[in-house]
Design goal:
The complex is a heterotrimer. By secondary structure, chain A is an alpha/beta fold. Chain A has nine helices and ten strands. In chain A, helix 8 packs across helix 9. By secondary structure, chain B is an all-alpha fold. Chain B folds into two domains: about 45 residues; about 200 residues, MetI-like fold. By secondary structure, chain C is an all-alpha fold. The radius of gyration of chain C is 24 Å and the shape is globular. Classes of the chains: A alpha/beta, B mainly alpha, C mainly alpha. At the B-C interface, helix 2, helix 5, helix 6, helix 9 and helix 10 of B face helix 2, helix 6, helix 7, helix 10 and helix 11 of C.
């Protein structure tokens, strides 16, 4: 029934996320700001799940909870059936099975691109240095990054930096990649290139992708499903299935089905955006 | 698809120097210096302004400084001059390196560990407002001899500045970096080594430049009050013995050496943080 | 809910830890200072220091002594006098350098060449130049704060977002308008920071100058001040008073900086909303 089943030839059972009735309240004894309001989402393994919503509505809080940077007030989050956080332990441990790609990029500026990419496996210390570096070089080649190994992140373009960051994550064979509006600061031309590059990488490495964005076009182009969130507090308001088959390329953007899905989603998104605007939400 | 540029830092420096020479800046600089020196010269020797009566004049100071047989016994040709410089430098080096060796690790740990900071920082902040020179009598009481109190004072000033700036540096590091490290599977200690320490480096070096500045400040004060030899001592004794040109020679020497040591710290920082030099040189992209 | 509100009123864990460390320190100090009489063995260094209990007693006596408070007064006067002079000359100078490139090119290198000379190195030259000792101390104090303030003003003015100026220009602002309504307020935060740092330096210089002139000349021509108080306590052999003096200056310095921070917060209310 859903798209993931149709891609089952390379299916994986890793990386299924289950968010069960999660609530997050900041400063419970004081201002008591509810960021996430009884949110329940089921993400099958290998799905590209796009979380769409106006700024400041609490999407990042959800991502942080999965990644283990924040605790939750109540509810449970499972990864592949195992409890990440829930009663007894309200904050997950950050780990290399769920890696975050940050909004403003978190490549270490003091390490070269190659050193950044090999960071995870080097810290784990399970493979030898040669093995790690060989794997890194071949992954960089796959991603079109050959030749930039010994440059520092500050010396290359931001588009290239994003790709390095994604390769850095993939080196650790994660189950889930968590993207927090990673292409927000890029111009739309670079963005399109990034989208295609991301999909290429996705087709080679099956991971579950949890992608936060406010760009509807980006969401429909990349995702299997859109989960449109209401403005604060954050709660799934509408789920839109994107039944355009993978693999996709930029021609999808002008297809009629794309327009139809866009129309379906746009009304809801605009409504929530207006609410956020009137509430004077600061950008998250 | 490589987008890195292969600029060596040498060619970058050469470029910077040549573009500086072509701008009006070096000429304005000389005009500025000339104005001040001219003012000094005219006010003491030509117009003979009343306030400037006892001040040593420009020609007097410079002829003394560069003469092979100086009237007061101090010039660039006398070994005594270098003895004073050497002793001051030795004291600064010792105090500064000790303060850095103790202050940087302490600052790093204070910035990194909330628990440690909650215990130690208030105690630190109780001591910090006390001017370093207020410690002079106590230092003389505690430490025997005239050398140790001076070095202790210099060390103290440097230590506070270094620790504080290092700690603030750690706190200024973007949270995303340590979060990324944890995501990638690094332990707390690994994150400290690979994220906190390199990340704090720019702030540490800014702090070290401040630190060497205050070290000179305290050293000079200490030398004026206690101790033998050194530039502060030179200035003070020259005043007492009414050998005024030596005061100015001492002051100028202090200025030059202070500037050089500060520049050395900055260069050391540039060397250790190649990534930042390249990043700053190429601008944001 | 009520228990939680009560919890907020009591000192938090962080404060408790800080207090524990300070108390532990005082205890170690007391034991070390009186080690000779308590244990029959004098701890090196610490054993020579007056004990906190003795310091406390001494302070009790001093609180009733008017000359102690006049020392406070003298030092404060010098600090604020020199500091004010540094602001009055330094802020306009810094702003002018930021605005006028030619002046900057001429003045800044000279400024940077003079800056590494520690203010105290100027003391003898200052004494020769100025007629009274008070003025010579004031000059040196002025120098101490002056450099910091100018550097901070420059830094603040130069980091003003060009777009603010462009926006104002497109709305028809005159040069004077731009200066008064954009450059000045935008530089205020840096001025505030520079002042707080400069205040600390000013105290250092004042104390040093008071000690040196008090220690150098006989009877201290300039008269009083906390620095001189410490020095004369040392010379007179009342070591407990030295520490009273040190702590007094620390408190005085802290209060001055705090005053400046409050004033700064009042002048730049927009920073609080960030």
């Amino acid at each position: 029934m859903n798209m993931i089943g149709e891609m089952a030839d390379q299916s994986t059972t890793r990386g299924a996320i289950r968010i069960e009735d999660v609530v997050k309240v900041y400063d419970p004894d004081g201002a008591a700001v509810m960021a996430v309001d009884h949110c329940s989402i089921d993400i099958p393994a290998g799905e590209i799940c796009m979380i769409v919503g106006p700024s400041g509505c609490g999407k990042t809080t959800l991502l942080n909870a999965i990644a283990g940077f924040h605790d939750i007030t109540s509810g449970k989050i499972y990864l592949d059936g195992e409890l990440l956080c829930g009663p007894g332990n309200m904050q997950a441990e950050p780990g290399s099975d769920r890696i975050v790609v940050f909004q403003n990029g978190a490549l270490f500026p003091w390490k070269t691109n190659l050193e950044n990419i090999t960071f995870g496996p080097m810290m784990a210390g399970k493979l030898s240095k040669e093995e790690i570096y060989d794997k890194a070089r071949s992954m960089m080649e796959d991603a079109g990054l050959s030749g930039t190994e010994n440059s520092y992140p500050g010396e290359v373009s931001s588009g290239l930096r994003r790709r390095v960051e994604i390769v850095r994550a993939l080196m650790n064979d994660p189950k889930v990649l968590l993207f927090d509006e990673p292409y927000r600061a890029l111009d739309s031309l670079t963005k399109s290139v990034m989208h295609e590059a991301l999909l290429e990488i996705y087709y080679k490495n099956k991971v579950t992708i949890f992608f936060i964005t406010h760009d509807l076009e980006e969401a429909i182009f990349l995702g299997h499903r859109l989960i449109i969130m209401s403005s604060r507090p954050c709660k799934p308001k509408k789920i839109v299935d994107v039944d355009i088959p993978h693999p996709r390329d930029y021609s999808v953007l002008t297809s009629p089905r794309f327009r139809e899905i866009m129309n379906e989603a746009k009304g809801v998104v605009n409504e929530e955006a207006k609410k956020a605007f009137e509430a004077g939400e600061k950008e998250g | 698809m490589s987008q890195s540029t292969d600029t060596s830092s040498m060619s970058l420096t050469m470029y910077r120097i040549s573009s500086w020479l072509k701008s009006p800046r070096p000429y304005l600089m000389f005009i500025g210096f000339a104005c001040i020196l001219a003012f000094w010269y005219f006010s003491v020797e030509v117009w003979k302004l009343p306030r400037f009566q006892d001040m040593p004049g420009l020609t007097e100071v410079f002829s003394e400084w560069f003469s092979k047989d100086p009237y007061y016994g101090l010039s660039i040709y006398t070994p005594e001059y270098y003895k004073h410089i050497g002793i001051s430098l030795r004291r600064i080096a010792f105090a500064f390196f000790l303060a850095t060796a103790l202050g940087v690790p302490l600052g790093l740990f204070l910035g990194w560990s909330k628990t440690l900071r909650e215990y130690i920082f208030p105690l630190f902040e109780v001591f910090r407002p006390i001017p370093v020179l207020a410690w002079v009598p106590l230092a003389i009481i505690i430490f025997s001899g005239s050398e140790t109190p001076v070095i202790f004072l210099t060390f103290l000033a440097s230590f506070f500045a270094t620790t504080l700036n290092t700690m603030l540096g750690v706190e200024s590091i973007d949270e995303s970096y340590s979060r990324a490290a944890y995501c990638l599977g690094a332990s707390r200690w690994q994150t400290f080594l690979h994220v906190v320490v390199p990340g704090a480096m720019p702030f540490i070096f800014t702090g070290l430049q401040i630190s060497i500045g205050v070290a000179w400040f305290s050293l000079v004060a200490g030398e004026m009050v206690s101790g033998q030899y050194g530039l502060g001592y030179l200035i003070n004794t020259s005043y007492m013995m009414i050998e005024y040109p030596k005061i100015i020679i001492g002051m100028i020497t202090l200025g030059v050496i202070g500037y050089v040591t500060s520049a050395l710290v900055r260069l050391a920082g540039d060397y250790m943080m190649q990534w930042r030099v390249r990043e700053l040189a190429l601008g944001d992209n | 809910m009520n228990i939680n509100k009560l919890k907020k009123k009591l000192p938090g864990r962080a404060t408790l830890r800080g207090v524990i460390a300070i108390v532990a320190f005082v205890i170690i100090w007391e034991l070390g200072a009186r080690s000779e009489e308590l244990f029959g063995y004098r701890v090196p260094f610490l054993g020579l220091v007056p004990a906190p209990s003795a310091v406390f007693v001494s302070w009790g006596t001093l609180i009733g002594d008017p000359s102690y408070w006049s020392s406070w007064y003298m030092s404060f006067l010098r600090v604020f006098g020199g500091f004010l002079a540094a602001m009055i000359i330094g802020i306009p100078l810094g702003l002018f350098m930021a605005v006028n490139k030619t002046f900057y090119g001429m003045a800044f290198p000279s400024f940077e060449v003079l800056r590494p000379i520690p203010p105290l190195a100027w003391v003898p030259a200052s004494i020769i130049f100025w007629p009274t000792q008070e003025l010579s101390i004031a000059f040196v104090t002025f120098l101490g704060a002056f450099y910091t303030i100018v550097i901070n003003v420059l830094g603040g003015a130069r980091s003003i977002n060009k777009q603010f100026l462009q926006a104002a220009q497109s709305m028809g602002a005159s040069q004077w308008d731009m200066f008064r309504r954009i450059i000045l307020p935008a530089t205020l935060p840096s001025i505030v920071v520079g002042s707080a740092v400069g205040m600390g330096i000013t105290w250092e210089v004042v104390v040093a100058a008071e000690m040196i002139s008090g220690g150098g000349s006989d009877g201290g021509g300039a008269g009083g001040g906390l620095g001189f108080f410490i020095w004369s306590s040392y010379v007179g052999g009342s070591y407990e008073q030295i520490i009273v003096g040190m702590i007094s200056i620390g408190i005085a310095g802290y209060f001055s900086s705090e005053l400046l921070r409050q004033l700064g917060g009042y002048l730049t209310p927009w920073l609080k909303t960030r």
